[in-house]
């Protein structure tokens, strides 16, 4: 097993997100004690997850990246299993279901110390099941060399929305398809940010469509990736 680096994009909100972030960071520090945690924001006024992930990658010294949103937890054994599976697969999406922890249970969880299994039995307000099998964001495990082969995330995506899908299409095309595990991840409650309220939403969708259309051609995909250098 190579050295692991967690890349965690995050911008403080001086509110509920900060509380969840502090707990999740402590969770990873305890559960994956030997793992480097790289936390980064971005320089754009509107939060750019793409740029924040790339900034975290520049800090990282590991040769395996765990790209983790700051509001997600899971059984840490799944991380170790996923790392082993990288011997046979280009990258891993370590979940098939997203279980959304209720606001009440999230608040209770934040008042306990980080552990697995958690010290409380939390209630799940919603489970994304069939739909989650189309999700590629939230938590990815990927060799550094594959992350770098596609130039990381495309920072032309501004705000939230589509950057993770574009990254997925680029890695699938250039490095090989992901393996999805039949397991759960858990999402801590916080006030939602509506993707469609992003003023760059339409431009993000148009850029994503180009990635989708290039998905069967390494040459076309590399052409889109190489545009970033010019931009």
TrEMBL record:
Organism superkingdom: Bacteria
What UniProt keywords apply to this chain's record, in alphabetical order? Transferase
Looking at the keywords, is Transferase present?
yes
Q: Which SUPFAM superfamilies match?
A: Nucleotide-diphospho-sugar transferases
> What GO molecular-function term can you cite, just one?
transferase activity
Mind telling me which InterPro entries this protein's record contains? Galactosyl_T_C, Nucleotide-diphossugar_trans
- One family from Pfam that matches here is Glyco_transf_7C
- Ranges where the Galactosyltransferase C-terminal domain occurs: 130-170
Name of this protein: Glycosyltransferase involved in capsule biosynthesis
